[in-house]
Amino acid sequence: MLAGTAAALAVPPAAQDQPIGSERAVPRHLLRGEELTLPLPALLRHGRLLFTANWTDQDGAGRPLTTGTGAPLADPMRPLTGARGMNRVSGPDANSCAGCHNMPDGIPGGAGDFASVVFQMAQRFDFATFDRSDTTRRRGSLDEMGRPATLQTIGNARMTPDLFGAGYLEMLARQITADLQRIRDAIEPGQARPLASTGISFGTLSRLPDGRWNMRRVEGLPPQSLASRGAEDRPSLAVRPWQASGSTASLRELHNTALNQHFGIQSSERFGVDADPDGDGVRNEVTRGDVTALTAFVATLQVPGRVIPADAEGRRAVAEGERTFARIGCATCHIPSLPLTRSGWTYSEPGPYNSSGNLRQTAAARRLAIDLADPALPRPRLSPDAGRGVIDVPAFTDFKLHDITDPADGDAAEPLDINQPPSSPKFLQGNRRFLTRRLWSAGSAPAHFHHGLFTSLREAVLAHAGEALESHRAFERLQASEQGAVIAFLESLQVLPPER
Ligand code: HEC
Ligand code: HEC
User: Fold this and answer.
1) How many other CB atoms are found less than 10 A from the CB of residue 331?
2) Residues 36, 33: Cα–Cα separation, whole Å
3) Is 470 helix (H, G, I), strand (E, B) or coil?
4) 264-303 pLDDT, tens digit each
5) pTM, two decimal places
6) φ, ψ for residue 312 (rounded to 5)?
7) Is the pLDDT of residue 225 over 60?
């Protein structure tokens, strides 16, 4: 796949010597800073191996004694082994990352069919059974409040998104966060300032005369990024580009969570070096170097492109549709393009906004740096505009949370607000705010919205209400041919087949 993959992963003979008949999907792990010394193509090959590995019990798949959040089981007397070893709802729910992320064209890192829906945070249960006679909370049926869960309330049903262009997206989020933090740090007690970056407004941040922070007029950020315990505790204002609910700041954090949730593969950086909290007898199931390799693989995936119709009429419709999209207000949230500046295309790992439980940036820690514009990486890629020295990232998002649900539609909320502390009353009150979905691959998506319930782009557009009601109405007022052109434009935003 990569140019120059000839640089083979150097494998020391001792580690390579797996006994005949060994069934480890990943026979060899990166050790002692190897992620910083391997040539990039070899590192990415290892990352791809981790992304496509069908994890086995010998690798450490399964988590007999812990849930998908990492907590001990509610009922340790009934470990997750044998017939309880996997569970499509509460997890472990899959064999490989690519088992879900593979569309279109079987590309590892792609989107997923509805069949790969994840019941987000159902993994806090030991083993979903929905058995009404079970009286232990968080074991199989009763939630934290003692209410019997149903398939509709146990977790948020989320569709598998594609990860194309992920490195550019995370670097944009990091850049916006840095801008917002700079504005924050210049606010004196008693002052207020507008929070804005790259033309996106996040409302206004202010301080009371005693120095405490007032986040009431900040918009589009999740509550974790606004938390503050007093004048000395500045809200992080971190833009969280990952998960439909904007819940996670970095790919690395998400990967540490996903490995444990979906497979019971526990990374040593989150679960401890030489420790075995899940009790399956395997330690160091993936190393720090492995997580870096996996993250580098995802961060360097190709970006989506455009498929322009061959006939003149089709081409005209796409161009007209793009103009109409902007004219009727769609582009206020789906911002067609955002600029990466100040060499923001040098992707670094670990990133600056990782929370504890993940490898973090420290003054002493060495960082991996990857030039996302490197033409040897999977194509197509984005490269800097020579004149302006920026990379324009045409993702069609603003990285903000919006409520575009119809307030009258009781079913529009998902059951859990995963941006609140797990098990808190607010967590169980549900959520209606989602990130403006990036549209640069909308024409290739197997289905639409966070839940994947919409099978056509038109259905998705017509489902916009709440904050997007005006643009929905403007779309409805268009003539049929103009509406068709908007859809044709959205359809042209596609993932190109490999090596095109
Ligand atoms: C069972 C299906 C499934 C498996 C297996 C799976 N994912 Fe995902 N992935 C999802 C779903 C569903 C989401 C959306 C989650 C959300 O919105 O909360 C997601 C989200 C992501 C995201 C964030 C993308 C975004 O736009 O928000 C990344 C990155 C990711 N997965 C990487 C991985 C990696 C790496 C692995 C393997 C370690 C993996 N996934 C395994 C289904 C899966
Ligand atoms: C107020 C902000 C806002 C405006 C205005 C807006 N959108 Fe959206 N759009 C969103 C959000 C948020 C989502 C994600 C919804 C979800 O996942 O539940 C979304 C999702 C979508 C999707 C689904 C993509 C996919 O594959 O899942 C399409 C298509 C889309 N918007 C097109 C449009 C069009 C066309 C317009 C103008 C008529 C528009 N949007 C106006 C915020 C907005």
Assistant:
1) 16
2) 6
3) helix
4) 999 999 999 999 999 999 999 999 999 999 999 999 999 9
5) 0.96
6) -60, -40
7) yes
